[in-house]
Amino acid sequence: MKGMTGCPVLSACKTSAVSLAFAREWFLDLEQHPDRYRFASHAGFQFSDGGFGEVGAQFSTVERFLGVPIRLKFELTDVATDHFRFRLIRPPFPVWGEFSLQEVATDHTAVVLSLGGARDLGRVFLRLPVVRKAITDQIQREVLHVKESMERARAEVPYARND
Question: pTM surpassing 0.70?
Answer without folding.
Answer: yes
